Input
Amino acid sequence: MISVPRLYAIVDAAFFSSTAALMIFVDELVAGGCTLLQYRNKNGNARVMLEQARELKRRVGRTAKLIMNDRADVCLAAGFDGVHVGQEDLSPESVRRIVGPARWLGVSTHNAEQLQEDDRTSADYLAIGPVFSTSSKEKADPVVGLDGVRRARRLTRKPLVAIGGITRANAASVIEAGADSVAVISDLIGEPRKSAEEFFRILR
Ligand code: TZP
Ligand code: MG
Output
């Protein structure tokens, strides 16, 4: 069983006007104590994704685990530590066959039924969300709330990551509801180092 840190920082390329700005953001997250980072790029072409991913790997090295959103091929090409897929990506077992047994595989779920189904796969961790309303995801599923997190906790023994609208103000309630970790996009933007440090202080 893997161990997931309290804060799972998601680095969404859409928030940055240049690769340089994205890299500075990541340096700051690592300086703030982040050891698990997901690279997400929903609009970029595969070539840009791989370039940015390789640069991330060069900078982060082994100080933090790097997880690739959606793309098993780019994960392998960039030497990332794992892949995170959703309900409309390749199935967990298809990704597992591509990335092998050692890399981390995470799966996003949005309700109890999906969570139970993906609990039966070889996923290393499951995500549940959106917990709160979010503007960082297009066509987000209905919010599951803290009750959705509690319910998810009862349905899986895998590490549980909560996502969607999580901030320093509500993160403690999400962990209390049973999540092992919070995945955050927006509330790290701006002052990533300070924000990460505060998440770790709050979630100690
Ligand atoms: N999946 C469900 S909600 C979400 C994703 C990728 C976005 C979370 O972003 P934020 O800004 O932390 O609400
Ligand atoms: Mg996806």
About this structure: The chain has one domain: 7-202. The radius of gyration is 16 Å. Strands lie at 7-12, 36-40, 65-69, 82-85, 104-109, 125-128, 160-163, 181-184. The mean pLDDT is 97.
